[in-house]
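Researcher: Please predict.
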Amino acid sequence: MWAVMDELDKAILRELQSDARKTNRDLAAAVGVSPTTALDRTRALRQRDIIRGAILDVDLAAIGRPVQASSRSAYARRRDATSRASATGSASCLTRSAST
């Protein structure tokens, strides 16, 4: 089922998709509402699971971890893991890690 959103919700999503780090004040100015309204609407979009989070994109080579590998396992809990995903079949977890 599609989420019901008005034009303001859509404008907020467009702005945040272009820059998820935008301050609430800048977001409000961009969509033409008060900061309180922008914050209330953004919170509502999160509560409705329309906004589920933001992604941190790290340049691994810049922090001394240029080598990356993917692995499959029945269970994975590694401190160097950069991402994990559930899987089906013989491996229940896919892990991506980075190291030097």
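Model: The chain has two domains: 7-47, 60-99.
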